[in-house]
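Batch manifest, entry 17 of 40.
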Amino acid sequence: MEKRRPHIFYVDGELTIRGIKLSDIASAYGTPLYVIDLDRVVERYDEVASSFRSVKINIAYAYKANSLLAVTKTLAMRGSGATVVSSYGIKVAKISGVESPKIVLDGPSKSDDDIEEAISSEIGLINVESRDELDTIEKIASRQKKKARVGIRVNLGLRAGAHPKIMTGGRSHKFGVSEREAVKLFALAAKMDSIKPIALHSHIGSQINDLSVFRAEAAKLVSIALEIHKKGLEVPVLDLGGGLGVSYAGEKAISYREFASAVTDVIRNAYEENGMSTPELVIEPGRYIVADSTVLLMRVNYVKKLGRRRWLLVDAGMNDFIRPAMYGAKHEIIPVRPREGTEVYSIGGPVCESSDVFADRIKLPMVERGDLLALLDAGAYGISMASNYNIRPIPAVVVISAGEVKLARKRDSLEHILAMEAW
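Output type: structure tokens
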């Protein structure tokens, strides 16, 4: 744990973040509770940024991973861009301090409102996923008397990712257009009065730990760019998406330094060999930047033996953190104050679903009612996917920054949950 997560460690038998006791934070703010180390978020962003010093790049942080203002504002102050999928996302990016040219709008089914906001805000890139969408952007941009900067999202037929539900680059998926269609759409866009095509875009999946897949993605995008170049058009921007995996349970993960070295060589060499200027790159990291910054604290309500299983029934549920139920994701869970002895436990929550299970038969130090557990690497797709299912409050979130603990999001109240009801 300490090698992969240098900010999370035990001090005198107490689990801490940067030496701050998690038990003290839980006592002050209650559980379930997300605790984010903002300094770790900055460290991971800076690692990504330093990996691409040899090329011009927009690190457009993927807001879907974690869109809390505490995170987005912190990253914007470091110079981050933003990848969003809605008009609200564009507005949050601007509120966070992201410069409009660094905002990227993705998504296979953008509404007219999404496109209206993107064009009026003069964002840097709208990634187009169909001919109909391109026509819609042209009409809206013409009405606004503006020129929309677009990229063409290509479905490269590369299936990659740790789970079928987070693969996005296969032919059966809803994203992008074929390679042949991408060339046609780019050329068509170049003839439109209110469109400026500048990019090719691909995102092939998430939690990918195979560098060869990213090399193949870069090579395919370059090949399409060369086909467009033969038609007398240039592709000055390549958007490689995101998808780098992180180590949740000790599995091997590649770094952005390895990724940058691999893909920039492929791109630079091909462009130079064909007399083209090296393109600006866009990358869309999310999980890589925020995943290991965060723990989800949960308290044990009951210790229960049923058949051959010994259950720890905790106060956090799948509504608070859905990844294990939705993706079969495995997260390391450890006690905040370890006891003597060991036992094998399954860990489940209060939601009335058999899928509301965080771990199945894992060995832990002995646990008693009232003990605190920490689910690690909860920063990506944790709070951003939390819901009020079973009429449960979305958890509070606190952040640690420069040795201070601050509330970043209040726990839901019943009044908040019911506020939008009209009956």
